[in-house]
Write a structure and sequence with these properties.
Blueprint lengths: L1 H5 L2 E6 L5 H8 L13 E2 L8 E5 L2 E2 H13 L5 E5 H6 L9 E3 L9 E3 L6 H27 L5 E4 L5 H11 L1 H7 L5 H4 L2 H9 L3 H7 L16 E7 L2 E11 L2 E9 L8 H11 L6 E7 L3 H9 L3 E7 L5 E8 L19
The structure holds iron/sulfur cluster.
């Protein structure tokens, strides 16, 4: 952490600024302020940066670039919105081509006020960003040190805000893969997610081809089971599933990017299967380019059995697994027709 504090590396991106805030940002590097003497480095490579500094409001052209850069910064990372345009859209907020501030696309940690933001304020924002970075680093280190103490538990409705926040972070990787943010997981609202705790979501039933749930009666079997992976009280992974007749439909397997490749997703899948001892088969779907998910499902005994276009960029790939390895369907009898088009 001492390295971060003594020499933070910053990547600066102009989202659609009038150049006022950019000039002030660059002024920080000139001899008058000379932040490089304090160890601050302005890098051009997001993979080397700790702090993502954005000027200007977000428009249709810059939205994807912001996501792309943000995704490439290693964890933990901090985002600084410089100027009122980056903070809220500023005077361009109501324009037809402006989506809003940077936080309409990615999470922002520090807001620097001003139009244009003064160099002193920008430097102060970077100092505050370092404090946030230090706190995030300490939290990540503590969590990583407790990786062997992960708890896999049922989640309840009070966990919905934390699960939704995790969902938005975890699915950034999918946006990167498909260049499309229309995935249902990214569009979900808190209210929608809280409703999912009450009863089986109509949306998932439609997408997965499960029978449509009844309009009103709600019983236990109509509920979605949510599992969470918890380290030191923080949710770092989650999955959900519901049973209809002889099938358990599993979805939204997610793990925080910092905790991937540690077996958490695999354990979540195994744990949720145990929640449905009564079903004959499990079904899960994922995007056609999400190779890590494919590998994980295949390694746990799932088999790909059909594909279905979702939109121009994404094709859902469906996997199934039979609870009993001697099930006739495992040998090919009664198996759904393969559709690999
Ligand atoms: S905050 Fe002011 S100076 Fe900065 S980009 Fe917006 S309009 Fe320009």
């Amino acid at each position: 952490m001492a390295g971060f504090k003594k020499s933070p590396w910053i990547i600066h991106y102009d989202a659609s600024s009038c150049n006022g805030c950019d000039i002030e940002t660059l002024a920080c590097l000139t001899p008058l302020y000379d932040v490089e003497r304090l160890g601050v480095v302005n890098t051009g490579n997001p993979k080397h940066a700790d702090i993502f500094l954005v000027t200007g409001a977000v428009n249709e052209q810059s939205r994807e670039v912001i996501r792309n850069i943000y995704h490439q910064l290693p964890e933990p990372k901090v985002v600084v919105a410089v100027g009122v345009c980056a903070s809220s859209g500023g005077i361009f907020r109501e324009c037809y081509n402006v989506a809003g501030g940077v936080d309409s696309v990615i999470p922002v940690d520090v807001y620097v006020p001003g139009c244009a933001a003064r160099p002193e304020a920008i430097i102060d924002g970077v100092v505050r960003a370092l404090e946030v970075l230090e706190a995030k680093h300490a939290e990540m280190s503590a969590l990583a040190g407790s990786i062997d103490k992960i708890l896999y538990q049922r989640a309840d409705k009070s966990d919905a805000p934390e699960i939704l926040a995790l969902q938005k972070i975890a699915y950034q990787t999918e946006i990167e893969l498909y260049g499309d943010d229309s995935l249902p997981a990214l569009q979900q609202t808190l209210e929608d997610l809280e409703n999912d705790f009450e009863r089986r979501p109509q949306r998932e039933a439609t997408v997965l081809g499960a029978p449509t749930p009844p309009a009103h009666p709600v019983d236990e079997s109509d509920r979605v089971i949510f599992l969470k992976a918890v380290i030191n009280g923080k949710i770092v992974g989650s999955i959900r599933g519901f049973a209809v007749e002889d099938t358990a439909y599993l979805s939204r397997l997610m793990v925080h990017p910092y905790f991937r490749r540690r077996g958490i997703g695999r354990k979540l899948l195994t744990a949720i299967e145990k929640e449905f001892p009564q079903v004959r088969r499990f079904e899960a779907k994922t995007g056609h380019q999400s190779k890590r998910n494919h590998f994980q499902l295949l390694s746990l005994g799932y088999q790909q059995y059909k594909t279905e276009p979702y939109n121009a960029a994404i094709t859902w790939v469906y996997f199934q697994k039979f609870q009993n390895p001697s099930d006739p369907a495992v040998r090919g009898e009664n198996r759904p027709v393969l559709n690999l088009a």
